[in-house]
Amino acid sequence: MASSTTCFIYILALFFICLPLANTIDFNYPAVFNFGDSNSDTGGLVAGVGDRLEPPNGQTYFKNPSGRFCDGRLIIDFLMDAMDLPFLNSYLDSVAAPSFRKGANFAAAGSTILPATASSVSPFSFGIQVAQFFRFKNRVLEVQAKSRKYDKYVPAKDFFQKGLYMFDIGQNDLAGGFYSKTLDQILASIPTILSEFEDGVKTLYDIGARNFWVHNTGPLGCLGQNIAKFGTDASKLDELGCVSSHNQAAKLLNLQLYALGKKLQGQYSDANITHVDIFSIKSNLIANNSKYGFAQPLMACCGYGGPPLNYDSRIACGQTKVLDGNNVTAKACNDSSEYINWDGIHYTETANQFVASQILTGKYSDPPFADKMPFLLKLKF
């Protein structure tokens, strides 16, 4: 059972929910600067640590691995397209002279909000990503002061204040914690996690950021990786077949993240802070998967092991290894559009498209923006 401290945190968060909504949203952003983990990584980890993604990653849209842990586009790709902006290049990817004129992506798969440890998948924690942005901005201003010949590759000076700062991070802080901590310990760590996030947002505000777009954490308990590891006891699963403890932690993190957004909005009256309820969108997709054209709510498209999860932690999508004396390959399914989950951890392009289409309705955002939406939806759903 959660402690009295956890109950107090719930009450405090509910208090902040009652505060007035943030300022209205304007989607005419000249640039986007993104911070996050694999949910929005467009090549950061692959470039930063020399990681390798094998086909069939990227098969649906890019036709080759693109640095995204997906068969195609991510949520952020669909959002950029809806805003008539190009896909974001990773800050860490220097090949082919990438353009950062319309923004940059500092996200890296495996990243956490808390500082990385020796066992972390990614060294690029949120604080490091913010520091990278600080250097990026300073270098851009230095280059512009010396010459205008790079203007088509870097943001204009005023883009840094007028641009949109997007965040999708925190999932790995919770998911990783379950390997060494109890549920109560994880719940108790959430204020520390969000204090680190708050420090990063404040740093960005202090150097000129004013428009913040924050995705909360999705239902972690519904990822094949977590079900395979922590859901072997059926009593630990909910009605959807998801690990209850993981989703409970995600819900509490999201409640406190929402309260933090309200707090920051009260402190920074000249800022726009939008909270996007990704948890509700993804939970609805899983619960009503057949309604939206999906046949598999939990099983991975690309993996090994077959039903019910087609996930084996020993072999990643696209890899070939010797397991139990047999040479095996983690292959993709015939039609990824029937699957919500791509590889046991990440979503398929079609599922990402669904999530983006729901975000763009405006009804899952606080403040909502349906009446302010300047673009026409061209998405499938």
How many strand units? 10
User: Which strand order do you get reading across the main beta sheet?
Assistant: 2-1-3-4-5-10
Give the rounded overall mean pLDDT: 92
The total count of helices amounts to 11
Main sheet: strands, sense, barrel: 6 strands, mixed
Summarize the structure in short:
With 381 residues, this protein is α/β, with parallel strands linked by helices. The chain contains eleven helices and ten strands.
Quickly list its features.
two-stranded parallel ribbon, globular, six-stranded mixed β-sheet
Question: Helix and strand layout, with pairings?
Answer:
Blueprint: H1 4-17, E1 32-36, H2 44-49, H3 75-82, E2 103-105, H4 126-146, H5 159-162, E3 164-168, H6 171-177, H7 183-206, E4 211-215, H8 224-230, H9 244-267, E5 272-276, H10 278-287, E6 296-300, E7 320-323, E8 326-329, E9 339-341, H11 349-359, E10 365-366
Structure description:
- The chain has eleven helices and ten strands.
- The strands form three sheets. The protein has a six-stranded mixed sheet.
- Strand 7 (320-323) and strand 8 (326-329) form a beta hairpin.
- Helix 1 packs across helix 9, helix 7 (183-206) packs parallel to helix 9 and helix 10 crosses helix 11.
- The two termini are 40 Å apart.
- The protein has helices spanning 4-17, 44-49, 75-82, 126-146, 159-162, 171-177, 183-206, 224-230, 244-267, 278-287, 349-359, and strands at 32-36, 103-105, 164-168, 211-215, 272-276, 296-300, 320-323, 326-329, 339-341, 365-366.
